[in-house]
Amino acid sequence: MAILEFDSKKQVHLVPVTIMLNGDFYDASAYKAAPVPMALEPETVYEGVRSGISQGTFTIVKAHQVLGNWVGEGNWQPTDNQKPAKKPAPLAPVEEIDNKPPVLRRGRAEKPQTPPTPAPAPTPPKPKDKDSDVVIAGNPPKEAPKEAMEPADRPVLQRSKPVVQQSDASFYDSSDKSWTVTASITAVSDVKEESARSYHYSMRPEEEKNLQEKVQELAVKEVQTRSSSDATPVRTTKSAKTKNAPSIKFTDVKFGAYDPSTTNEPIFVFEGNTPIFDKLSGKALPNHVMLVVRQDIYADFHILFSSISDPTHMDSHPRCEFVDVVDAEGDGYGELLFRRTYDAGRAFSVYRVIGNQLWPLFEGKP
Predict the structure, then answer these.
(1) N- to C-terminal Cα distance for the chain?
(2) Residues 351 and 359 sit within 8 Å (Cβ to Cβ)
(3) Which residues of the chain form beta strands (DSSP E)?
(4) E strand or H helix at 221
(5) CA nearest to 17, candidates 326, 352, 356, 331
(6) pLDDT tens digits, residue range 257-306?
(7) With 0-12 CB in 10 A as exposed, 13-18 as middle and 19+ as buried, what is 317?
(8) How many CA atoms lie within 13 A of 26 on its CB side?
(9) What's the maximum distance between 2 C-alpha atoms anywhere in the chain?
């Protein structure tokens, strides 16, 4: 399993995530790296999926390192741009057998051959050269072309730069140029062919708006709890608490509903940014908030996972972003894929939804 990242120049980069072997998950960026990981071997085909639906195919052509991390480059073929299969050419019409007698046809008349021209009379021998003992008789033989006289494997002199043959080392060049991710989808490479299954949970617009407001209220409570725990305890009256309560407003809100178990029991993922006052720096820091919520049969909400991060505590509270729901085990059920950004780099995690909690299947290291 990997992630396809699209940059602002419409180029696609494949970042390996994990490999499952006999039920165990391994880091795909280091599994059987000699030095290129097995997940980035050339001609490896990945299928880009979004919530279980195919978006196209990606074929690896080259692998290299960017800031110490392995990345695959190749050809991305979206599903919409794939050429339709060519129609088979129509069969040639079968000639009917004719029982008529054969017809003799006359061929073209051959042109009469012209008589050969007589050879020219030999010329008298030339006088002997004063500086040479060789006597040339008759017409001198024509000089053979230079290409015929020179051997076929002669060296060729070129003024341009010599052509460097591609070696195995050029397949995994290192580079320090990173890119800005504008969009990303998951990618899976598996020999098994399974029917597409969507993990997206469809709702009516008014129902989706109502659920988003309720989940956002839970996010506000999480942020208030975080800010109150970080603040210095001060004795205040009840009216002062109400007056000084921070107003939480989210920007860049993302909300989605998914059904990873395909049992019509959705989970909701909420993401947003909100400023929180930091007592150490004395400034409002942009905090990233992410919640994974589930609703039971009694319409009660349960927080399965929550993450609040700010730029000053990325080592202990990394920025956690939801990527997609993907079938990581190949059993038809979906798992949640997250991207964690630390001070030292980034890593990916895969979780399975079990009841009212998330069970980690794979946790990468930055």
Answers:
(1) 17
(2) yes
(3) 2-7, 12-16, 18-21, 24-27, 45-50, 53-66, 69-78, 174-175, 181-188, 251-258, 267-278, 283-295, 301-309, 319-326, 335-341, 346-354, 357-363
(4) helix 205-230
(5) 326
(6) 999 998 889 999 999 999 877 777 777 788 899 999 999 888 899 999 99
(7) middle
(8) 14
(9) 135
Task: Return the SS3 of 25.
Answer: strand
Residue 246 exposed, middle or buried by CB count within 10 Å (0-12, 13-18, 19+): middle
| CB of 40 closer than 8 Å to CB of 60 | yes
User: Which tokens belong to 325?
Assistant: 């729901």
Residue 41 near residue 32, CB atoms below 8 Å:
no
The rounded distance, in Å, linking the Cα atoms of 249 and 206 is 21
pTM of the model: 0.70
Rg (CA), the chain: 37
- Six token digits for residue 259: 């059904």
Per-state percent for the chain, helix, strand, coil, to nearest 5: 15, 35, 50
SS3 label, residue 299: coil
Helix (H) or strand (E) holding 243: helix 238-244
How confident is the model over 2-17, as pLDDT tens digits? 999 998 888 899 999 9
Residue 305, pLDDT score: 94
Report the alpha-carbon distance of residue 271 to residue 267 in Å, rounded.
14
Euclidean distance between CA atoms 258 and 287, whole angstroms: 25
> Which residue type, as a one-letter code, is found at position 270?
F
Structure-block tokens of residue 40: 């980035």
